[in-house]
Specification:
The chain has 419 residues and is of the alpha/beta class. It contains 15 helices and 16 strands. Strand 8 and strand 9 form a beta hairpin. The chain is globular. The model has no long low-confidence stretch (mean pLDDT 86).
Length: 419
């Protein structure tokens, strides 16, 4: 099993990680470092997963860490490899390298099973496919009997709607966000980033290149305000504003981890929906929560955003991941914010749920004229939705231009290639 979130001891070397947990050791009762290095090197070369066995995992890219996980599995004689969302955090060149490795392992006689929501991966790699929906098998058979739209329909139980993508309307030059002079040594260095009202700016990048810090600086959750930083929302400076003040000014945040950063899982959907802005009523000069009004509003929002089940009294932990994300999006978008910062908003969602999120972001930009900063490691998502595209690499931002920039060009920038 190669998990989506790698299970590696980062302070140890590649070879030491491979040796960890072996039930029986060919090395005898003691740890023969030279021999395990040689064995790891042999296995890496044999499978085409070239990597330095002496390198520490903490110094490796995400793609190389995934290689370590595969080598670990193969070192134990695995004939069947199960990979969970293997491309979720990889740049395009790393994805193609992984695909080449998987095809080679398949040709060597091993069985490869991939759990994925991405249709292009299925058609690029698989010979057969099984579709699960609501915990049940709805299709299992040869892939050559299906087209991508037919497979998508089986996955979500209906036809996939077309995204209402329209060109950015050049009404005026009003800006929702201007961020300048961000200097966090070794983490983030941005001279200027602007998002117009009604515009979607996509920021691509392999995870760990400053995306989390960028979102935190804008949302006000970073540890300190960087010296000299300037941040304005709709022309108003919010550089020193609190999180609550930024929220009231019209900032919405869709964080990367819905369970740790966006929801209180033990609370009800009604309570979670009103964490941003609770409804109150006053009695004798004292403000009280208006529970009746909150419940009524929650029922309407859950219905509008197709949350299942639409029970406002249900605890958030009882929902599937996709429906939890719908609750987060409903809470953040229903007040019609002026700026939306969305960090990997469709991670772990099926094609149907992801399509709904994309539609909501597009409508917020085009109909409500909100500025949208889409920070995503999913390159297809960035290229599909964005009016302008930028890339974060080692904390530095490179703007690549308007919609239509090539996937190859963005992919090179994501790994720091110069040509």
């Amino acid at each position: 099993m190669v998990h989506q979130h790698f299970l590696l001891a980062e302070a140890m070397t590649v070879a030491e990680n491979v040796a960890l947990g072996m039930r029986t050791s060919p090395l005898g009762w003691r740890f023969d470092q030279a021999r395990i290095f040689a064995e790891t090197e042999r296995l890496a070369s044999q499978t085409g997963l070239h990597i330095d066995p002496r390198a520490r995992v903490c110094d490796l890219s995400v793609g190389l860490r995934q290689r370590v996980e595969i080598i670990k599995a193969l070192s134990r004689g695995a004939k069947i490899l199960l990979l969970d969302e293997p491309t979720a955090v990889l740049a395009p060149p790393e994805v193609e390298s992984l695909f080449q490795t998987l095809r080679a392992l398949r040709d060597s006689g091993r069985t490869i099973m991939i759990v994925t929501h991405k249709l292009d991966e299925v058609f690029a790699l698989a010979s057969s496919v099984t579709v699960l929906r609501s915990g049940e098998t709805v299709f299992s058979g040869a892939l050559n009997t299906l087209t991508p739209p037919a497979l998508a329909e089986k996955m979500i139980g209906r036809s996939l709607p077309q995204l209402p993508i329209t060109p950015l309307r050049e009404v005026n030059d009003a800006t929702a966000l201007v961020l300048s002079r961000v200097r966090i040594p070794g983490t983030l260095e941005i001279d200027r980033l602007a998002v117009k009202c009604g515009e979607i700016v996509g920021v691509a990048g392999v995870e760990g290149n400053g995306q989390q810090e960028l979102a935190a600086v804008i949302a006000g959750t970073f540890d300190v305000v960087p010296d000299g930083m300037e941040l304005s929302l709709n022309g108003r400076s919010i550089s020193r504003a609190t999180v609550a003040e930024r929220t009231h000014a019209g900032l919405a945040l869709i964080p990367a981890d819905r369970q740790r950063e966006a929801l209180v899982l033990e609370m009800t959907l009604n309570e979670n929906l009103h964490l941003r802005e609770p409804l109150t009523r006053r009695r004798a000069g004292v403000a009280f929560l208006d529970h009746a009004a909150m419940s009524q509003r929650s029922r309407q929002v859950l219905q509008d955003y197709s949350v299942s089940p639409p029970d406002e009294n249900l605890a958030a932990h009882a929902l599937s991941g996709g429906n939890q994300q719908k609750v987060v999006i409903a809470r953040e978008l229903s007040p019609k914010p002026r700026l939306i910062v969305a960090l990997n908003p469709t991670r772990g969602l099926d094609v149907g749920a992801a399509s709904e999120v994309h539609t909501r972001l597009l409508k917020a930009a085009r109909e409500s004229e909100a500025g949208v900063l889409l920070i995503s490691s999913d390159l297809d998502e960035v290229l599909t939705l964005s009016d302008r595209v930028a890339v974060l690499f080692r904390g530095r931002m490179t703007e690549l231009g308007l919609r239509g920039v090539s996937k190859h060009e963005v992919g090179k920038a994501m790994v720091g290639a110069q040509s």
